Amino acid sequence: MRFRLTPRETSFYDMFAASADNIVTGSKLLMELLGADTAGRAEIAERMRAAEHAGDDATHAIFHQLNSSFITPFDREDIYNLASSLDDIMDFMEEAVDLVVLYNVEELPKGVEQQIEVLARAAELTAEAMPNLRTMSNLTEYWIEVNRLENQADQIHRKLLAHLFNGKYEAIEVLKLKQIVDVLEEAADAFEHVANTVETIAVKES
Question: Which InterPro entries does the entry mention (predicted)?
Answer without folding.
Answer: PhoU-like_sf (IPR038078), Put_Phosphate_transp_reg (IPR018445), UPF0111_domain (IPR052912)
